[in-house]
Fold:
Amino acid sequence: MLVESIMTPDVLSVSPDATVQEALEITKKHRIRHLPVLLGGKLTGLISDRDLRDAAHAPETRVEQWMVRDVITCHPLDFVEDAAATIYRNRVGCLPVVSKGQVVGIVSERDILNNLVEMMGVNSPTTRVEVEVPDKPGMLAEIADLLRARRLNASTVMVFPSTTEGYKTLVFRVGTMDPRRFIHDIQNAGYSVVQHPSALDDGEV
Structure:
C-alpha cells in the first residue's frame, strides 16, 4: 500500500509570518496536531500543537520562531511501511507528503496505526491462529493447504521470526470464530499452534 492511499490530501498550512495565536486557532478549529509552514508554496517548516502550546505565552510572536526547520518528508508513492519506519526511527508525529516540491498531503501516526489495524484484519470478525513451523521453503503453502481443505478464508497472513532457532511463526487471521478443526488439522500434521487460553474452552482465539 502506498502513502497516497492513506494520507490526508487537503492540508492546512500557515506562513512563517503567521502569529502563534493564528496558528493555534487553526489547530483548535480543525482539530489537527500539525501544520506545515509554507513560503511561496514551498515547505519551510512544521509546527505542532505542542510547539504552539509551548509558545502560548507569546501569542503575537511569529510561527517561524517556533517551527521545526529540518522537516522529514515522504513521497506519495512511498510504501506505507517505509513511512511508518521513518516516523518510528525519527520519533516524529507526522510526515508532510511532498511531490515535485509541493506539499500534497500529510500522513500521521494515527493514519499509520489505522492502516496497520486494517492490514492485520483485526477490525473484522476473524480469529487469530499462530503456527510455529520449521524455517524452510514450502511451509506457508502446506498450512494454507489445510486452510483450503476446511474451506476457510484467510484475511491476513503474516510471517515472523520465531524465538526458537530454526523456526518461523505464521500468523493467520481466519474467517471463522471457531477454528478448532483447523487447529486440530495443523496439530495432526505435526506443527505447534500457539493458542490463547480462551481457545481451549470456547474455540475463540
Summary: The mean pLDDT is 90. The helical segments are 20-30, 49-54, 80-90, 109-119, 139-149, 180-188, 199-202.
